[in-house]
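Q: My labmate handed me this sequence with no annotations at all. I'd like to see what the chain might look like in three dimensions before we decide whether it's worth expressing. Could you predict it?
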Amino acid sequence: MLPTEKLYLVSGGAGFIGSHLCERLLDNGHKVVCLDNFYPNYDPQVKWDNIKDCQKHPRFELVEADIRDAETIEDIFARYAFDAVFHLAALAGVRPSIQNPQLYADVNIMGTLNMLNAAKNSGVKRFIFASSSSIYGNNPSVPFSETDMVDNPISPYAATKKAGELLCHNYHHLYDLSIVCLRFFTVYGPRQRPDLAIHKFCELMQADQPIPVFGDGSSSRDYTYIDDIIDGVCASLAYTEEHTGYEIINLGRSNTVSLSQMISTLQEVMGRQAKIMRMPMQAGDVSHTFANVEKAQRLLSYDPKTTLKEGMINFVRWKAENYPI
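A: Here is what I predict for the chain of 325 residues:
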């Protein structure tokens, strides 16, 4: 457990991963400032629902602001004495980034620069950055390791995350910030964004509608349950308390699953047969993701435990209880 009574900033704290992190930090005895602008890339009410329990907590505070607004971000950092920053706020998604690359660059690159600059100006020394497995592109070497070359992103989203890692390294080098960049691999579980495959497929299957399957089903992902991801995020914070430096660390399950296998597991858990609508592969989508987590195991004692079936059972139960058809 992390030391108690620290004050942490979680940007993007009303999102899927951010809201789980806020809850975990509160459960561990910390104070949390959640920074979010409730951007309508999906229904903002979902984000409000994500933090409804947090808002009842006396050690939780919500600040509505946009990370692109440098002056406001500086004011927020000047108002609080943050012990560390978790920077999760970003526009996610490969396909939307192809449609609007300028917006993605503005939010994910300039927004990250604003957060780093505010941390530097206010004396915050510990910074956790949410990166993505999308950075690896169609990497021919599997499993993906942090030492692999990642100079060939195949979507604007991936390029913005690589740029964010480079900015983090720059601020570590120039200003001695202790920074960990976490490359998340296909995170799923309760509160998963409605545009992501497991959530979307579950909703369509509940309504007895066909699910869009891009390609022949052989593409694969390293599906990682949200609780295991949050374990890794909190461990990375503990790591920065004992070590100064700059690290890039994969957080995945290190167990790649094909799209066809994922659909079969979802059918089993839901007790429903999916109607498949075959679609061509989409530009920007990688064929496979597969995390080498040896570095996370070594530095963070990271040990993901949740199987895909167990995680899906939890997700389907949450979906039925909160957003029934």
